[in-house]
Amino acid sequence: MSNTNTFFKTSLQMRMSFIFLLLLTIIVLVTLYFVQRATYQHSSIQLFSHMQTSVSVVRDNIEGRASALDNGMTTLAKDFSIKQLIATANDDRQSLKSAMFNYQNRLGADIFWVLADDFSPLVSTSDPLERSNEIVPSFTTPELHWFSFNHRYYLLRATPVRFVENSTQVNAWVVMGIDVEKLFTQNLVELTNMQMTLLSLKSNTLLGATPDTPFVNSLVLPDIEVSSGLHRISLSSTNTIYTTVEFGVWEHSPVYIVASTGEDDAYLSSESLIGQLFIILLSAATLGLLGATLLSREITKPLHQLIKAAHRMRAGEFVETFPSANTLEVESLSSAFDEMQQGIRDREEQIHHLAYYDELTNIPNRIQFSNHIRDILKQQPECQLTVLMLDVDRFKDINDTLGHDLGDELLIAIARRLSSYATESSFCARLGGDEYAVVSHQGAHDSPEEAAEQLIKLFEQPFKIENVVLDVDCSVGIALYPQHAQSLQGLMQCADIAMYSCKDQHNAFAVYTDALNKHSVVRLSLMSELKGALAEGQLELHYQPKLTIHSHKVETLECLIRWFHPEHGFVPPDDFIPLAEQTGSIRHVTQWALRTACQQVKKWQEQDMHFTVAVNISAIDLVDLSLPDSIASLLMEFDLLPSALTMEVTESAVMSDPQNALRALNLLRNMGITLSIDDFGTGYSSMAQLKKMPVDELKIDKAFVLDLATNQDDRVMVKTLVSLAQNLGLTTVAEGVEDLATLEFLTEIGCTKAQGYYMTKALRSDELVTWYQNFTRNGLTS
Predict the structure, then answer these.
(1) How far apart are CA 411 and CA 395, in angstroms?
(2) How many CB atoms within 10 Å of residue 183?
(3) Is 140 exposed, middle or buried (0-12, 13-18, 19+ CB in 10 A)?
(4) Which of these, 614, 454, 31, lies nearest to 281 by C-alpha position?
(5) Quick one: DSSP state of residue 210?
(6) pLDDT tens, residue by residue, 687-700
(7) Full-prediction pTM beyond 0.85?
(8) Using CA atoms, how far apart are residues 62 and 64, in angstroms rounded to an integer?
(9) For residue 655, what are the contacts with CB-CB under 8 A and spacing of at least 6?
(10) Is 601 helix (H, G, I), strand (E, B) or coil?
């Protein structure tokens, strides 16, 4: 997830607040739009109705004045004295004029004319009317007539005067008019709350208006619309709303009255309503947003707590309680988190058990055993520990004979006994296969041997598995901390070496010593260097003579390998021969030894010294069926008889694979090569097996010969072995002869040959020649 994407992501609380704010804004704007639209339409209708009503009021007011003037003039026309004054007006105009002034005042007129029947002026308030005969009769109709006279405008009415009532003859005309300025006063504004303007759109002439009318500029008059309805016009940077209504005639053209008001005043109530509504909606939106924020915070609060809980779970912490909420979804989510944590805990426990406990026996496994020791060493570096590694003897035989299922049951039973043995100061585990281990503090036992004996006692009672009684033995290897190793790996390695050591030596237990470690790093390094050492000539053959006792001659030599390492110096054969056998390098060593020995024998023969050389071969060489062919090739190469070689094999080499060993020995015997059993008496060959071996010679191990001069048991043993060999038709060689008494005893019992330091140690070929020459001249006593 990139930081950019994370940056643009918002929290749930912010998103909910934003959505609420957006919805409230839309609601407010839509509401304001429709309310403003409806209010404007309603206000326009109300305004138009108000304007029409106002015009009607003005019309009634002015028509009322016109009607009052008509009525007064009718009364005047019927007044007999006025008739008489009109009739005599040519003689007495002043009286008529005076009477008319009187009526003028009474009727509120501002101007009058009295005309004769031929429309000639009799008396008037001002100049005579022009074209009076054309215009005066029209002033008698009911509609409003507007008239311009001397740059002023008047509402005019006219009435005929008949001297004889009901006569069709008109004897005179009376015309009166009211000044327009007296009709359009501030009183109309107060009455209608509108400005009234009277104008002629044909000639764009303003006839009259209330004091504050906006239509004072004649330039805007052409823009005035006369159609029905409300209209808007901009005047002096303000908008004016108006309507026009026909209102009488002037000079045979219609005159219009314009009712107008400022737009701000016209829609003042509407805007005020909208403003109030906007404040109400804004307040509602603010409250809604506040409520949404509180609601989202209430919802997201447990979510944030769950996120923190998830972080703690990820860090491996156990969360005791999860947040509760009054919403079903959050409650379900908390429950799901709790179940998930429990599931994780169960799986972790299962994984921990699988990782640290043996699945078969349900006791701790190698990993937990190692961790236990590692923890002790970390917490108590000064402690002293005893590590016992246990291996079941012949477990493979049990598995192969009784089956793996019963073998598994045996492993489980052993684990139970070990668990019962383990106390608070000890810890047991199954390392794998049939291997177990126990670690305890050294103070828990008097000695490591006592700890091993207690462990072995667990196996004294036989195991009963499915009605099969099994007597099981074990091999116990012991390693001590810090005496043998200061690390876990070192302790386990030492205990393992000790265990396999006692298994090889058929001991019940063994305490680790450095001598048991045949797999040190130096020795492993030597194995990698052995092949190169052969090529570089670091290995030599030394020869130790075998004295033929009855003839007191030396006719046979045993060649022994010596390795002189340029860095480590002399390397004993026991340090590299066993590892060479394990790695298979022994074949190269054997081939080298055979070739070197044959080459040396050939040299001695050329010097008129005829020896039979004995070469040791291992169990691996013995089962190598190519060995007889390679020996035959060497004999042919160096022109030697087969009798020039003796092959020495150990009992254990033969017993490791008796069938193939016997086949190889028969091949060599058939070639005419002498065969000798080396270290006889230390192996486990039976008499029947010995009988089958095609050997010529038995070499009695030096373990029976070294103390032969003083140890009666060894004397009996050696005597018995010599007698056995004689009875089987075999010659005997006693190893380890180091004194004359031993040689004399061997002579006494009839041993064939003697080998040991009493004659000489193993010598180089040139040294042997010198020794042999001296022996030939002087014998052993010189």
Answers:
(1) 10
(2) 21
(3) middle
(4) 31
(5) -
(6) 666 777 888 999 99
(7) no
(8) 5
(9) 661, 683, 684, 685, 689
(10) helix
